[in-house]
Amino acid sequence: xxxxxxxxxxxxxxxxxxxxxxxxxxxxxxxxxxxxxxxxxxxxxxxxxxxxxxxxxxxxxxxxxxxxxxxxxxxxxxxxxxxxxxxxxxxxxxxxxxxxxxxxxxxxxxxxxxxxxxxxxxxxxxxxxxxxxxxxxxxxxxxxxxxxxxxxxxxxxxxxxxxxxxxxxxxxxxxxxxxxxxxxxxxxxxxxxxxxxxxxxxxxxxxxxxxxxx
Length: 214
Description:
With 214 residues, this protein is of the alpha/beta class. It has helices spanning 17-28, 44-49, 55-76, 103-107, 132-142, 175-181, and strands at 5-9, 35-39, 81-85, 92-95, 98-101, 114-118, 120-123, 126-129, 147-151, 165-168, 193-196, 210-213. The chain has an 8-stranded mixed sheet with strand order 3-6-2-1-9-11-12-10, with helices on both faces. The two termini are 26 Å apart. The model has no long low-confidence stretch (mean pLDDT 91).
């Protein structure tokens, strides 16, 4: 199974209904699965913590809830998707503090048009939350031909479409890109990423508006 993108639904975007609906519509235009969609938790975690739940438990609960909600959203758009957590079938496990991706198990899901994978991993039989950047990096190392796709935090990017691809270096990105475009979790990521929009995602792999940071 060829995987050529890892689409990252970051913390803040997961509570943006307009973004998620636009993303789902773009996904429906891609046809057969070409990549993996991954997600972690959302600001819902903080609301759970305020009720007295410990952060680790809140992250796990919020992530599981989001996986179900996203599957429902995709279904509303007529997109057949399987939602699965990394700890299920030991697809993602933590061994000696290293993230291990079981590509054989992922390949066994080849009949599923779209795969939505959460960053909850198996750690000696228990469930552990992996930060989204660390999870993205591990998947990228496992699938070296796959592009990591992030989505711009700047809503203006959705309407400012051009045919130019901007290429930047991590150690030389502007404060504007860092503060307005990059998802907060990924400000010190360091690996090659492509930043696009939910709408332009429909054009993959021929993105019209794309910023590359490498």
